[in-house]
C-alpha cells in the first residue's frame, strides 16, 4: 500500500500538491476492488466519492429521461473518477461501471474539495478536464458532419461498398458448365474456388474465347483459368480496384478475406466513378518495363503525384486516409521493383526463385501510414527449406541474399533510403524461413534486450506485399497469439515507448529544441499515439496493423470509448497532415526531407491545433505509464 501511494503521489496531477495537501488527501484514502460490471458510482448514490483508477477499465454512463443510457467516456489507469459527477448539475444523472475487474484508490469527497479550493493549479487541471470533454463532443460532431459531406469522394470509399456476390465454379468442372453458368447469371466472368471456398483463380469470357479459338471445349475450367488474379480485400480503398479495371476492362477482381472469397468487383460496379490522374500513374507503374520508368513514378521524384496529394489535403481529406493512399501507391512500386529484380536475377544467371517467398514491409509502410520522408523497413519470409540438401540450402541462401540486395538497391534509388538500422531484406536477420521466424519471435518475446525490443516493435506491424501470402498469414497468427499471452512483453514495449516523452508541459506549453524551437513530429508525437494504440491492440489480441483500424477494433470490443477513439483519430489527422505539408514544401524547395516542425514559423491557430493533438498523445502516454508502474508495485 505504501509503495502504491508513493507511486501515485509522484504522478500528475498529484505532483502539483504541497506535501501537507498530499498527506491530508491520502490520509483517509483506501484501496477498493470492484468486479466486472459492478458500479463504482451509481446514479442513486448520495455524495459519491472521488476515485483514482489504479488498474482496470470503467465506463461513465449518463442516464437520460427516456430511460436510455448514453456512454460518455471510458476511464483508464491513472485517471480520476467522479469529478464530472461531483461538478455537474443534479439534473444530470451519472453512473460509473467497471468494465473489467478494477482497483481504485478512494478519496474522501470533502477533503478532495478542500484541497481543490486551496490549490489553484490542481483545481484548474480538474476543471480543464471537464472542459476538454465538452470540447471533444463538439469536435466529434463537427468532423462527423464533414465526413458525411465527403463520402462521395472516391478516395474515401472502400471496396465493401461496391463488391457484389461472387458467382463461383469448381476447377474440375467443364468449360461448357462455365459457359452455361455465365449465361444463366448474366456475368462476364467466374471466380474459381475449391470446396472450402478458397480462391483458386478466375475465368473471364476472354479465357473462354481463347478456348473457343483453340477448338477445345471438352476441357476443364482449370486448364484455362487465370491462377494468379489481382485481388483486393473489402477494407481496401476502391481506387485499388478502379485502377486495375480501368486498364483491364474485361477483368474481374476477387474480394478475399485471407484466401476465402467473399465478393467480386467488375467494371460495371463503378458506372458513375470519376476519373483521376492517380489511376494513370498506377497503371504506368504496373506496365513499366525498366527501372528508370519506375524511378520517375516514385513519390519522391514525380511532381504530378505530389500535386495530387496536395489537392487531397486542400480538399480536407483526412490525412490518415491520404497516407494510406500513398502507401498503396508505394505498394505498386514495390511490386514492380520486385518483378524487375526477379527478371534481373534470371539475366544474371541465378534463375527463378528456387522456393516460395513472401516480401513484407514493416513500420509506417506496413501500417499504411507513410509520408514522403521515410526509409526502408522490409524483409522476406521464405518457405521452409532446412529439409533439403546442404547444396540446395546454399543455393537458396545465395539466391535470396542477392535478390534482397537488388530490391533494396532499387528502392534506395527510388527515394526510399537504406534503413539506418539495417532492417532490410538483404540482411540475414530480416530474411528467414517461416520456422526460423517462429524461433526469432519466441526469442524476441523472451529476451529483455532494449535493441531487440525496438526491432521487434518495427516488425510487429509487418504486412505482405507480394509472393505467398499464406506465409505471412501463418506468421501473423503465430505472432498475435504469443504477444497477447506475454505480459512481460507488454511491459517491455511500454518501457520502450516511454523513453520518448511527448514534449508538452501540464498546461500546454510545447517544448521545442534549438533556436527555431523545432519539434520532430514523428518521434515526439505521431509515434507516441501509434505505439500506445499498438500496445493496447496487442494486449487485446487484435491482429490489425493500421492504427485507425486498431482504434476501430478497440472501440468495437469496448476497450476504448468511442470519444477517445475520435480524439486519437483527430490528433493523428492533424499531426500527419502537418507532416505531409512540411514534406511537400521541402520537395518544392528541393531541400532534404525531414519531420522537423518549427514552432516559431507558424500561426497561433496552427500551434493551438498542434498543442491539442500533443495533449491527446500525452494522455495516451500517461495511461500507459501508470499501467507500467502499477504492474511493478501492485
List its traits.
634 residues; alpha+beta; Jelly Rolls; CBS-domain; Beta Polymerase, domain 2; 4 domains; four-stranded antiparallel beta sheet; elongated; cNMP-bd_dom_sf
Task: Walk me through the structure.
A four-stranded antiparallel beta sheet has the order 1-8-3-6. A four-stranded antiparallel beta sheet has the order 2-7-4-5. It has a four-stranded mixed beta sheet with strand order 16-15-14-17, sandwiched between helices. The model is unreliable at 137-152 and 271-275 (pLDDT under 50). It has four domains: 2-137, Sandwich (Jelly Rolls); 161-273, CBS-domain; 276-446, 2-Layer Sandwich (Beta Polymerase, domain 2); 486-633, Four Helix Bundle (Hemerythrin (Met), subunit A), CATH 1.20.120. The protein is built from 22 helices and 19 strands. Helix content is 50%, strand content 14%. By secondary structure, the protein is of the alpha+beta class. A hairpin with a 2-residue loop joins strand 12 (252-257) and strand 13. The chain is elongated. One of its GO terms (molecular function) is [protein-PII] uridylyltransferase activity. Keywords: Activator, CBS domain.
Strand content: 5-15%
Q: Under the CATH scheme, which class of the largest domain?
A: Alpha Beta
Distance between the termini: 8 Å
Mean pLDDT: 85
Q: Which range best describes the helical content: under 10%, 10-25%, 25-40%, 40-55%, 55-70% or over 70%?
A: 40-55%
Structural class of the helix and strand makeup? alpha+beta
Uncertain parts: 137-152, 271-275
Number of domains: 4
CATH topology grouping of the largest domain: Beta Polymerase, domain 2
Number of continuous helical runs: 22
Radius of gyration: 28 Å
How many distinct beta strands?
19
Fourth-level CATH superfamily of the largest domain: Beta Polymerase, domain 2
Form type: elongated
Largest sheet: 4 strands, antiparallel
CATH architecture of the largest domain: 2-Layer Sandwich
Going across the biggest sheet, name each strand in turn.
1-8-3-6
Amino acid at each position: 500500500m505504501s509503495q502504491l501511494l508513493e507511486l501515485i503521489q509522484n504522478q500528475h496531477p498529484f505532483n502539483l500538491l504541497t506535501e501537507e495537501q498530499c498527506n491530508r488527501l491520502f490520509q483517509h484514502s483506501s484501496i477498493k476492488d470492484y468486479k466486472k460490471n459492478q458500479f463504482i458510482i451509481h446514479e442513486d448514490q448520495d455524495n459519491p466519492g472521488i476515485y483514482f483508477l489504479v488498474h482496470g477499465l470503467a465506463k461513465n454512463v449518463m442516464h437520460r429521461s427516456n430511460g436510455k443510457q448514453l456512454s460518455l467516456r471510458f476511464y483508464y489507469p491513472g485517471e480520476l473518477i467522479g469529478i464530472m459527477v461531483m461538478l455537474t448539475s443534479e439534473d444530470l444523472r451519472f453512473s460509473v461501471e467497471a468494465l473489467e475487474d478494477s482497483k481504485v484508490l478512494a478519496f474522501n469527497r470533502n477533503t478532495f474539495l478542500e484541497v481543490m479550493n486551496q490549490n489553484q493549479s490542481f483545481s484548474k487541471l480538474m476543471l480543464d478536464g471537464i472542459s476538454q470533454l465538452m470540447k471533444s463532443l463538439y469536435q466529434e460532431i463537427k468532423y462527423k458532419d464533414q465526413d458525411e459531406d465527403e463520402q462521395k469522394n472516391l478516395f474515401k470509399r472502400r471496396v465493401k461498398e461496391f463488391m457484389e456476390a461472387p458467382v463461383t465454379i469448381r476447377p474440375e468442372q467443364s468449360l461448357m458448365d462455365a459457359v452455361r453458368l455465365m449465361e444463366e447469371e448474366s456475368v462476364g466472368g467466374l471466380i474459381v474456388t475449391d470446396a472450402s471456398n478458397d480462391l483458386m483463380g478466375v475465368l473471364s469470357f476472354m479465357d473462354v474465347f481463347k478456348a473457343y479459338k483453340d477448338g477445345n471445349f471438352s476441357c476443364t475450367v482449370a486448364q484455362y483459368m487465370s491462377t494468379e488474379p489481382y485481388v483486393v480485400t473489402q477494407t481496401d480503398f476502391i481506387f485499388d480496384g478502379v485502377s486495375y479495371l480501368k486498364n483491364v476492362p474485361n477483368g474481374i477482381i476477387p474480394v478475399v478475406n485471407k484466401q476465402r472469397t467473399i465478393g467480386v468487383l467488375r467494371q460495371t460496379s463503378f458506372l458513375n466513378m470519376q476519373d483521376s490522374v492517380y489511376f494513370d500513374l498506377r497503371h504506368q507503374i504496373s506496365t513499366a518495363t525498366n527501372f528508370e520508368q519506375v524511378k520517375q513514378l516514385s513519390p519522391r521524384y514525380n511532381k504530378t503525384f505530389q500535386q495530387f496529394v496536395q489537392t487531397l489535403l486542400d480538399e480536407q481529406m483526412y490525412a490518415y486516409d491520404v497516407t494510406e493512399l500513398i502507401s498503396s501507391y508505394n505498394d505498386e512500386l514495390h511490386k514492380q521493383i520486385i518483378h524487375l529484380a526477379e527478371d534481373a536475377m534470371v539475366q544474371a544467371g541465378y534463375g527463378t526463385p528456387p522456393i516460395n517467398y513472401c516480401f513484407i514491409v514493416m513500420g509506417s509502410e506496413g501500417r499504411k501510414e507513410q509520408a514522403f520522408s521515410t526509409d526502408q523497413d522490409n524483409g522476406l519470409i521464405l518457405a521452409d527449406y532446412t529439409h533439403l540438401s546442404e547444396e540446395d540450402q546454399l543455393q537458396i541462401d545465395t539466391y535470396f541474399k542477392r535478390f534482397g540486395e537488388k530490391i533494396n538497391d532499387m528502392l534506395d534509388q527510388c527515394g526510399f533510403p537504406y534503413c539506418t538500422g539495417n532492417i532490410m531484406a538483404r540482411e540475414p536477420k530480416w530474411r528467414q524461413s517461416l520456422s526460423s521466424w517462429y524461433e526469432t519471435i519466441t526469442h524476441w518475446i523472451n529476451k529483455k534486450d532494449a535493441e531487440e525490443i525496438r526491432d521487434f516493435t518495427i516488425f510487429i506491424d509487418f504486412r505482405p506485399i507480394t509472393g505467398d501470402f499464406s506465409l505471412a498469414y501463418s506468421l501473423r497468427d503465430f505472432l498475435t497469439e504469443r504477444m497477447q499471452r506475454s505480459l512481460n512483453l507488454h511491459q517491455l514495449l511500454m518501457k520502450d515507448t516511454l523513453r520518448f516523452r511527448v514534449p508538452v508541459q501540464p498546461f500546454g506549453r510545447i517544448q521545442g529544441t534549438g533556436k527555431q524551437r523545432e519539434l520532430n513530429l514523428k518521434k515526439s508525437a505521431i509515434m507516441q499515439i501509434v505505439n500506445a494504440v499498438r500496445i493496447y491492440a496487442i494486449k487485446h489480441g487484435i491482429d490489425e496493423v493500421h492504427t485507425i483500424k486498431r482504434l476501430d477494433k478497440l472501440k468495437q470490443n469496448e476497450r476504448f470509448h468511442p470519444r477517445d477513439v475520435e480524439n486519437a483519430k483527430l490528433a493523428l489527422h492533424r499531426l500527419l497532415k502537418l507532416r505531409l505539408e512540411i514534406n511537400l514544401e521541402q520537395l518544392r524547395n528541393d531541400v532534404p526531407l525531414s519531420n522537423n516542425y518549427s514552432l516559431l514559423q507558424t500561426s497561433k491557430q496552427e500551434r493551438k491545433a498542434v498543442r491539442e493533438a500533443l495533449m491527446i498523445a500525452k494522455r495516451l502516454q500517461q495511461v500507459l505509464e501508470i499501467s507500467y508502474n502499477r504492474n511493478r508495485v501492485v
